[in-house]
Structure formats: structure tokens, C-alpha cells
Amino acid sequence: MPRRTRRKSIESDRSHLKPIVFAKSIAFATAAIASIALCAPTFASDGDACEIHFSNGRFEPAQLVVPANTPFKVQVTNSDTAAIEFESFELHRERVVRPGQTITVLIAPVAPGSYKFFDDFHHGAAEGSILAK
User: Fold this and answer.
1) pLDDT of 5
2) Phi and psi for 7 in degrees, rounded to 5?
3) Would you say the pTM of this structure is higher than 0.85?
4) Predicted local distance difference test score (pLDDT) of residue 32
């Protein structure tokens, strides 16, 4: 009989911890969900994307116009015979595009202004810009 009493007293001693553990679990879960929601961009229209084609050492069109303060997508198609690297220091993007491949670059909202991009594999050959209005 003393054993049951002892076990009961241990359980009653731990019972005050249950609300604390539950509250900490809820706080952790809420923080995790909030951090994911803040980090994951949402894109205005999933079906629409600006298109850039690379051929003969040039980007066509050389300038894209996008709405400012709105996330957008850029599809880059490499029609050339060598791989290229679509890169923009200002947009913090860098993607390799193999010959015949099309990639999609997701870009978070940007302030109004001009943002340069280029082919990092062939310096000075191809440059372009994205104009956010």
C-alpha cells in the first residue's frame, strides 16, 4: 500500500508541469509556423511569368518591365549550344541553364528601380535588366 501512495504522490508532483509543457509546445509550434510564413514568399499569379530567351550570346528581350512591390517569376530559356548562368547580384539570384533547358526563377517583391542580370559564364557578352515600376 505504501507503494501506491508513493506513486500517487509522484504523479501529483508532476501534474503541475503539464500546463507548462503544453504552453511551451504551443509557443514553439506558433513560432515555427510564423517563421515559415514569413520566409515563404507568395506569388501574385502562379500562371504568369516573364520570359527571357538566350540565343546567339544575347538575352531577348534585354529588358523586362514588372510591377514593383509584387513577387514575380522569370522563365529563362537557353536556346544556345553552351550552358549559361543567369545571375543578378541585385536580385540575389544565380541559376545555371543548360542548352535547350527552361528554368523558372522566383523573385520576391522589389522596390521600384532597375535590376541588372547577366550571363556569368560569358562575361561582357550578354546583359539585361528588369525594370520594376
Assistant:
1) 56
2) -60, -40
3) no
4) 43
Number of domains in the chain: 2
Task: Tell me the residue range of the domain where 27 lies.
Answer: 2-39
What is the rounded CA–CA span in Å between residue 114 and residue 28?
40
Q: Are residues 97 and 118 both part of a single domain?
A: yes
Within a domain: 44: no
**Which residues have CB under 8 Å from 73's CB, separation 6+?**
43, 48, 49, 50, 104, 105, 106, 107
CA distance 130 to 59: 12
